[in-house]
Amino acid sequence: MFIGNVKIDTPVFLGPMAGVTDMVFRKICREYGCGFVCTEMVSAKALHYHDKKTASLMEISPSEHPAAVQIFGSEPDIMAEAVQYVEETGADVLDINMGCPMPKIVNNGDGSALMKNPSLAAEIVQSVKKAARIPVTVKMRIGWEEDTAVEFARRIEAAGADAIAVHGRTRSMFYTGNADWKAIYRVKRAVNIPVIGNGDIASAADAAAMFERTGCDAVMVGRAAEGNPFIFREIRSFLETKILPPPPSPEEKITAALNHVRLLCEYKGENRGVRESRKHTAWYIKGLHGAAKAKGELFKAENLHEMEAVLNALLRHYR
């Protein structure tokens, strides 16, 4: 498939998740077969004020392409100004967040709050598209409290968006209940640009069902990838061959956790790397025998050596 002029070989995307989809996590997901990755969401206003921490979120490594940088905000001129910063990263696509449900985002009129104001949302897309040399996409929900997805998607398409990712929940649902795939189907029928289906894809079978039931052009995996980059290998294999590879063994999960910790420490420094790797390691080993005890020790670990010791002990248990 194509987004604008950007070719994507495997229509399986990693969804942007704040505090999760940093460069290390994205690179790992790409290695396991993910076809397209996206940064954590970046504040256009923070870029306007030259915030260095925000700018660091946009760093993209050569092995990640094709990749998108996602920005959020609700002021068309400031969003358009952010385009320059995004393009300087070498991003292939610029994505606009119109789906984040978190109070600290929507209370400022950003994220999914824009679904209450389709005119402003369209103006933002128009401004960004006018300033951009790369394709512009939008990640949206199906509405604020009720399904307004078709009308909203049509406005976004008319404003110049090159593709739309639709999360099948309203903002009021946050992450509860079931994603409404029928709403994604209706959006796909209503627009002529690629539609990426998102919501409740936790397995290869889910991904195949999303394609079949919505007619979407690609699927986007979010929380199901936490501690489970293997899901991209499974989906890709199933889509290409109809054969599921064997699930990851406990040894593979623990080894992947070790690799993740080491990469984070290498990229972000040991102190920060250890802190940020705790949640990732807990996700990798969840459900394994001895995981509860190991998790407690991992969250007390203060350096890479201690993290490795805990995970290696768990690995020996399985070997």
Label the structural class.
Answer: alpha/beta
Spatial ordering of strands, largest sheet = 3-10-9-8-7-6-5-4
Poorly predicted runs are none
Order of helices and strands: EEEHEHHEHEHHEHEHEHEHHHHH
Share of residues in strands: 15-25%
Radius of gyration: 20 Å
Compute the separation of the termini in Å.
Answer: 42 Å
User: Which oligomeric form is depicted?
Assistant: single chain
Helix content: 40-55%
Mean of all residue-level pLDDT scores: 97
Q: Total number of β-strand segments? A: 10
Largest sheet entry:
8 strands, parallel
Helix count, per DSSP? Answer: 14
**How would you describe the shape?**
globular
Can you give a write-up of this model?
With 319 residues, the protein is of the alpha/beta class. 48% of the residues lie in helices and 16% in strands. It contains 14 helices and 10 strands. The protein has an 8-stranded parallel sheet. Helix 4 (76-88) links the parallel strand 5 (67-72) and strand 6. Helix 11 (250-268) runs antiparallel to helix 12.
